[in-house]
Write a structure and sequence with these properties.
The complex is a heterotrimer of chains A (about 350), B (about 280) and C (about 260). Chain B has about 280 residues and is an all-alpha fold. Chain B has helices at about 10-15, 20-40, 50, 55-90, 95-100, 110-120, 125-135, 140-165, 170-180, 185-210, 215-220, 230-240, 245-265, 265-270. Chain B contains 14 helices and no strands. Chain B is globular and about 65 Å long. In chain C, about 45% of the residues lie in helices and about 20% in strands. Chain C is elongated and about 60 Å long. In chain C, strands 1, 2, 3, 4, 5, 6, 7, 8 and 9 form a nine-stranded mixed β-sheet that branches. The chains are: A alpha+beta (about 350), B mainly alpha (about 280), C alpha/beta (about 260). The interface between B and C is medium-sized, with 24 and 24 residues.
Chain lengths: ~350, ~280, ~260
């Protein structure tokens, strides 16, 4: 590997950018050596955030700092993209179509001052390191999706950046390649000593690749923390849906939670006051009649929809409360779960995770 | 159209074409092509080598080549930045500027030549101070021919390159910047190669236009063998007196233009589009 | 169903396209019986004079309409040789008319005027051209006609006869173009016809060519063979040779036929 000693610092942002009617106001710190995933629905500002960090757009207010170097202070200091030690991998890779793979990789090295020969030599070393030497003289159009993705990553890494930004790096791949590439990308990101920021809308990607998650909604950071924390305590419906859990809001008193959406649940938590509660879809049982048994919570609900997820079926129930429930296909048949049908839901108090409302 | 027996190939080829299109298209094709064949039929083929080696023809040919290539060069060097300005930079009055810049495309060439005289002629707005300062004036010089040709040819280049710039994916430039390329490097290593087909098409069109220019040239630069008498001018002056020589020159010009248009592939005229 | 939708409007349009011109030509032809149109091809240097003559002729002959096309004599002769649909040809010298005669396209020409070459300089005479010899001064920009048109041919003879090292900067395609360049002050002097100087009025000044070098051109006029308006064309020619037209020509600077 051609990386020498790199000074690595954390990426610190606290900024505001307005584009037309949309305002992005975000503050986060991404630590060097960690992979931070930025997740959020479409239009939440993820791409803008990356562009600002990359230096393709200026911030209006605030500051952006990498290590102890201020890249943008919203006033007089603005380091343009070409001078920032930040590499970027784009969603559709954007490999230069008029250059072959080797020249694509050498492009950045050459742009930063190396001679053509030295740049190509470095490129060849990187290719060998990634075991892709055979692709050197191919054109981007001749690469498969997975190959292109790796070359794009290589191209960004070849300039030995201090920070690496990845914009939905696996989105353009088919399911099989995606699974394979996820593992490899995870390895490479772990090896990368600097700050790695990954934008994704796939929860699995965030879970596998990232150490830290930052949730962006409507131009604001609504939650940030380790992957486990965010999954356990989603702060918004979007995050809950992302993590695949049910999110309920309400207030508890003496072991009873009154739900905002209607209904009441018995919970095993001592937290009082305004709370959020999560229930995993697999923790809910479905019955034809009111169930006997240890579950302290049971109520009647109506089927609104069904979705196949792998070998299970996710059923959307409306009721007080309404929930997403995972059942087997057999159960669907046995219980006669069709849109409009009713059934009884049951969940143990211990399966309801309650925490103070954020 | 009678419902006779149609082969499968007929079906595929003519399916969905209203029948009236075919005869009209054939008339159009004949209209445009028959005069060219008429020219070729009238060509004194046996005398061609003799006619083409005469001094008047060789001089006109050489002058035309030199001036048209120089005019194309000017069109590229100054036209590309102008196309950039129109495509990338939003400034007040941009549509007006674009319309003015494309005016030579529709202006009668003689009008263009007269306009050039008023600006760059000996008594022109710029020409007069130029002459007083340097003693140099453009009319009646080869440089004047180059300028007249550039005047009519540049809009073609600006038009095609502006289209190419607008049609390209600018994110490639973003990618290049994140890789550390300076603005100039992005231009030369990424942008220009990506719009190369449009740029080449524009240059070829400009060259063909410059080669054929007549009205603006004679109005602005006059007619002097070896200095300002380009091929179209030579053809015109020879037409009444030495018809064979005029036709010979016409055939050469025709062949050159066909060559230019043949290498101008359709895909280059539609940047970003498929063939 | 689709066929008839296309066919009907097309046949309708075609019908209109065929019938309308037929109707119009017959209508016009009926009118043509009342008014004959004479087409005249005339050298560019006759522009002002023949336009006046046309007005006078039409007044005197209300049953005849005259249409004139002006251009370089050599070009007009080419058209006549190609068989253009015109009745009368008037050129600026005998050499070009001779081509038409040899081609069998015109009947016996008659001389109707003469013109001579002179030098025109811009109104302010910025280059200070005072006599013909000044044209040979280094740095003086001189415009002449291309040798293949009568004006240019005459200019060549004048320059040869003078023995002066006059080097024109441009050989314009017709005499009006030379005049235009002089008026615009883009050249210091131009060799044009006396009639052009008269027509340009105060926009140019004249510098005479010495008599021993001067060239005079005879203007012939002829009836085109197989012309559509034979009789009317001849009437026009007779008018041009008549007193009224001749005085118009004289006023414009032409000399009498020699």
């Amino acid at each position: 590997m051609t990386s020498g000693a790199q000074s690595v610092g954390d990426l610190d942002i606290d900024m505001r950018v307005t584009r037309g009617e949309f305002e992005l106001s975000a503050a986060l710190t991404a630590k060097a050596g960690q992979v931070t995933a930025i997740v959020g629905p479409n239009g939440s500002g993820k791409s803008t955030l990356l562009r600002v960090i990359a230096g393709l757009e200026p911030i209006q207010e605030g500051h952006l700092q990498l290590g102890d170097r201020v890249l943008d202070d919203g006033r007089t200091t603005f380091v343009p993209a070409e001078k920032r030690p930040i590499g970027m991998v784009f969603q559709d890779y954007l490999l230069f179509p008029h250059l072959n793979v080797l020249d694509n990789i050498a492009f950045g090295v050459q742009s930063r001052g190396a001679t053509r020969q030295a740049a190509r030599k470095a490129g060849r070393e990187w290719l060998a390191d990634f075991d892709l030497s055979g692709l050197a003289s191919r054109r981007p159009a001749q690469l498969s999706g997975g190959q292109a993705q790796r070359v794009a990553l290589l191209r960004a890494l070849a300039t030995t950046p201090e920070a690496l930004l990845l914009d939905e790096p696996l989105a353009a791949l088919d399911a099989g390649t995606k699974t394979r590439m996820r593992g490899e990308l995870s390895r490479r990101l772990t090896e990368f000593p600097g700050v790695a920021l990954l934008v994704t809308h796939e929860p699995l990607e965030a879970l596998v690749l990232a150490d830290h998650i930052c949730v962006l909604e409507g131009g604001r950071v609504v939650q940030s923390g380790s992957v486990e924390d965010v999954a356990a305590r989603p702060a918004s419906d979007y995050v809950a849906a992302l993590m695949g859990v049910n999110l309920l809001r309400g207030s508890t008193r003496e072991g009873r939670m009154r739900l905002d959406a209607g209904g009441e649940l018995i919970v095993a938590s001592s937290v009082e006051g305004r709370v959020f509660a999560t229930i995993r879809p697999s923790a809910v049982t479905v019955h034809q009649h009111r169930p006997e048994g240890s579950a302290r919570n049971s109520w009647k609900a109506r089927v609104e929809g069904l979705e196949e997820i792998g070998d299970r079926v996710r059923v959307v129930f409306a009721g007080e409360p309404g929930l997403l429930v995972d059942v087997t296909a057999t159960s669907v048949a046995t219980l006669g779960l069709v849109p409009g049908a009713s059934a009884w839901l049951a969940v143990k108090a211990t399966e309801i995770d309650v925490y103070p409302a954020p | 159209m009678t419902t006779g027996v149609m082969t499968r190939r007929d079906r595929r080829r003519t399916h969905r074409t209203p029948w009236i299109i075919i005869p009209l298209a054939i008339v159009a094709m004949l209209f445009l092509v028959i005069p060219l064949f008429g020219l070729l039929a009238d060509t004194p083929w046996t005398r061609l080598p003799d006619l083409l080696t005469r001094e008047v023809t060789v001089t006109a040919l050489r002058l035309s080549l030199i001036t048209s290539l120089a005019a194309t060069g000017i069109a590229v060097v100054f036209g590309v930045p102008l196309a950039w300005l129109l495509a990338r930079i939003d400034f007040p009055g941009r549509p007006v500027v674009r319309a003015l810049v494309l005016l030579p495309l529709v202006l009668p060439p003689v009008v263009g030549g007269t306009a050039l005289l008023t600006a760059l002629g000996r008594r022109g707005i710029i020409g007069q101070p130029l002459e007083e300062l340097t003693g140099f004036s453009l009319p009646f010089t080869t440089a004047g021919v180059v300028l007249a040709e550039a005047f009519v040819a540049m809009p073609f280049l600006v038009l095609t390159v502006e289209g190419a710039l607008r049609g390209m994916d600018r994110r490639f430039e973003d990618a290049a910047m994140t890789l550390g390329a300076s603005r100039m490097r992005v231009l030369t290593r990424v942008t220009l190669p990506l719009i190369a087909p449009g740029l080449i098409a524009g240059a070829l069109l400009a060259w063909a236009r410059a080669l054929g220019e007549f009205g603006a040239t004679i109005t602005f630069a006059g007619n002097f063998p070896g200095r300002t008498q380009t091929m179209p001018l030579a053809i015109y002056t020879l037409l009444d007196t030495d018809r064979d020589a005029a036709i010979a020159l016409s055939v050469v010009l025709l062949a050159t233009c066909i060559f230019i248009l043949l290498i101008l592939r359709d895909q280059w005229l539609h940047p970003g589009g498929r063939r | 169903m689709r066929r008839s939708r296309v066919l009907f409007p097309v046949t309708r349009a075609a019908a209109i396209m065929i019938v309308l011109p037929a109707v119009m030509t017959t209508a016009c032809a009926q009118q043509d019986d009342d008014v004959a149109t004479v087409t005249v091809l005339a050298a560019a240097s006759l522009t002002e004079s023949f336009t006046e003559i046309r007005e006078a002729f039409q007044e005197a002959n209300p049953d005849i309409e005259v249409e004139i096309s002006f251009g370089p004599s050599s070009g007009l002769v080419s058209q006549v040789l190609e068989g253009v649909d015109a009745d009368v040809l008037a050129t600026a010298n005998t050499a070009t008319m001779e081509q038409a005669v040899q081609g069998g396209s015109v009947q016996q020409p008659v001389m109707f005027a003469t013109n001579s070459l002179t030098v025109a300089v811009p109104a302010g005479n910025p280059a200070g051209i005072d006599d013909f010899a000044d044209l040979a001064r280094p740095g003086v920009l001189v415009a002449v006609c291309d040798p293949r048109v009568p004006c240019g041919d005459a200019a060549q003879q004048v320059m040869a006869a003078s023995g002066l090292p006059i080097e024109p900067v441009t050989y314009e395609l017709d005499v009006k173009a030379v005049l235009a360049k002089v008026i615009l002050d883009e050249v210091d002097a131009g060799m044009v016809y006396v009639t052009d100087v008269v027509a340009a009025g105060s926009r140019v000044r004249e510098v005479m060519i010495p008599a021993d070098m001067s060239e005079s051109l005879s203007y012939p006029i002829a009836s085109i063979v197989d012309a559509p308006q034979d009789g009317a064309g001849q009437r026009f020619i007779d008018f041009v040779l008549g007193e009224q037209a001749q005085s118009i020509l004289a006023a414009d600077g032409f000399g009498p036929a020699s």
